[in-house]
Amino acid sequence: MSMTGCNLPEKTGKKDDLEKRFLETTEDYCDAVKETDADKLIDLSADDLEDKKEDLENILDFDGDAYSEDMGALLSAIADTIEYEIDEDSLEVDEKEGKIDVTFTVFDHENNEFDDEVDTLEEALDAVEDGDTCEIKLTLKLEDTDDGWKVKDTEDITSDVYSFLIIGAVDPDYTFGVATVEINEDDVIIAADDFCYAIETLDVNGIITTSTEFERITEADLGQSLCLTPGATYSTDMCQMLSVFADAISYEMDEDSLTVDEDTGTAQINVTFYGLQYYGDGSTSEEDFDTFEDMLDYLAAGEVVEYDLVLELELTDDGWMVSNPEDVIEDVYGFFIVGSFMPDYEFGAASAVDPDTPTISGSEVICSGLIWVSCEDIDQTARTATAYADIGFGVHIPYSQPDGVIVDFTGYYTTIELNGELIDTVKDTVWIDVEPEDGSSIATGEYVLTFYTPDGTAYECVTVTVQ
Which residues contact 331 (CB under 8 A, 6 or more apart)? Predict the structure, then answer.
């Protein structure tokens, strides 16, 4: 007589009750084996396995850190094939101990080797589902303890039934390739071109729909940063200034550079973007222009810079998509940092330069070389929320020098305070660059930069508020 599941026969009498409890424990134990329940296996074991509990839990946790996602899925599928049959007729039991024969069946991993046609996880799972099983005949030995019947030699039992775990032990990080399909290189080029065109035209929706998920930039922030509707994110003058740089964006794609990996469903292609240089050396400020239009014309005639980039693409259920969009965004759209610093910029609103101001005392302050603000003592706001979280700011005290003479700033120093607390002292320079410490976001608050001569005389104080 054999049984599976919960088909225990009704028994009466002392011996019958003894056998019933024995069979109940046997079935509970076999269920734990089938369900790969480490806690239950240890609880029903006569052996002291507490020191091996963590190892057993790890190797049977197919969703945990012990295996890659693909390997965990494969082992879980094999574990799902475990069945058992208890041979009740083989039962031998007394009040102290007993034994019984159990036959387990499981996917035969030794004689169902995955051939060259199994390239993907889906194909491997199908092979497990359709594959042959093997029988593992065991004799379970139990002993009666103060906590009831317990099974002996759990390590030997699990070693036999779970022998398929050798697959995971040999290569726990194994990952299958994506389904091999006939790849049309034209599709890859079209996808890359769609993305580049969206970048060129500031098409936020186009950028999002041709890209995989963003990691460093949120879609909402991208939409806000690229919005050139006056009054939405930036002032009218700032929108016009940013439009000069945006209108200059163009690109060339080197189709001959395309490489495609059919096994992983990935591709790369070289693209060169062109744009205008958006930072200068501080030698020109808005006071050099009679009108705002003159300044825009000057910016539009600026130096053209190249960004040589490698687009990475991957094949998804929605087709080919760019997987490194932020690398492109941060380079090509670098000029938007101008707007993030001064979203409310208006031409002519800055103070005029005092011609009597000593050249070394700060007649001009330059924020990261991006935009010019002229005055001796300046209050300004730098915003990080509308562009990239990792921006900092710089303050430059320009100077004039006779031809052929190199000014030595040895001994000059600058103190940097944040919200009234000294956070740094920079020596031997008049160029101060404040960057985030953790590489992700500059701390908000009021920064006060005080510039000193070598004898300790403060000659300039600059306040920058970061929101």
Answer: 273, 307, 309
Write the DSSP assignment of 309-376 as a string of letters. EEEEEEEETTEEEES-HHHHHHHHTTTHHHHHH-TT--TT-SPPP-TTS-TTS-S-EEETTTEEE--S
Alpha-carbon distances, residue 184 vs 254, 258, 268, 322 (angstroms)? 17, 12, 14, 16
- Token look-up 């494969």 returns 74
Q: What is the DSSP letter of 408?
A: P
Q: How confident is the model at residue 410 (pLDDT cuts 50, 70, 90)?
A: confident
Strands 148-151 and 413-418: unpaired
Please check whether the domain covering 365-466 is classified as CATH 1.10.3470: no
**What is the reported pTM?**
0.46
| 422 membership: H or E segment, kind and range | strand 421-427
Q: What's the CA gap between 357 and 377, in Å, rounded?
A: 11
What is the bridge-based pairing of β-strands 413-418 and 371-373?
Answer: unpaired
Fold identical between 185-341 and 365-466? Answer: no
Given CATH 3.10.450, say whether it is the number of domain 185-341.
yes
When mean pLDDT is compared over 188-202, 217-231, 443-457, the highest value belongs to 188-202
Could you tell me how far CA 63 lies from the centroid of its own chain? 20
| Of the candidates 217, 191, 190, the residue with the CA atom closest to the CA atom of residue 204 | 217
Is residue 380 within a helix (H) or strand (E), and if so which, with residue range?
A: strand 379-382
- Torsion angle, alpha carbons of 112, 114, 116, 120, to 10: 140
User: Of how many residues is the chain composed?
Assistant: 467
Residues 279, 368: contact at Cβ < 8 Å? Answer: yes
pLDDT tens string 341-383? 778 888 876 433 333 322 333 323 333 333 323 223 333 333 3
Domain boundaries, the chain: 2-170, 185-341, 365-466
Cβ-Cβ contacts under 8 Å for 315 (sequence gap 6 or more)? 178, 181, 183, 265, 266, 267
Q: What secondary structure does DSSP assign to 88-104, as a single string?
A: EEEEEE-SSEEEEEEEE
d(CA 385, CA 380): 16
> At a CB cut-off of 8 Å and minimum separation 6, what does 51 contact?
none
Domain range 2-170, CATH class: alpha beta
Find the mean pLDDT for residues 7-36: 80
Distance separating alpha carbons of residues 63 and 85, to the nearest angstrom: 28
